[in-house]
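Hi Y.,

Following your request, here is the sequence exactly as I used it, all 67 residues.
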Amino acid sequence: MMKAELLTEVRASRTDLARLVEAASRDEQLYIVVPARAVEAWQRREPQAWAKVCAWLASQGKTVILA
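Below is the corresponding structure, written out as tokens. Let me know if you'd prefer a different format.
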């Protein structure tokens, strides 16, 4: 999935996942540190959107680290 397509989808969701995607695309780090509570909320509110973001992050070579 392309970044622009993903951003369009997650901006329509009830989450702030678009901020995560934007930050991950700007940052050259191989990992993204995310609060565990945020991940829990994304999984509860928008599990499909979170799954798409996870897949996109993996395709970009990024690892999610829970804080």
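DSSP finds four helices and two strands in the chain.

Thanks again,
Q.
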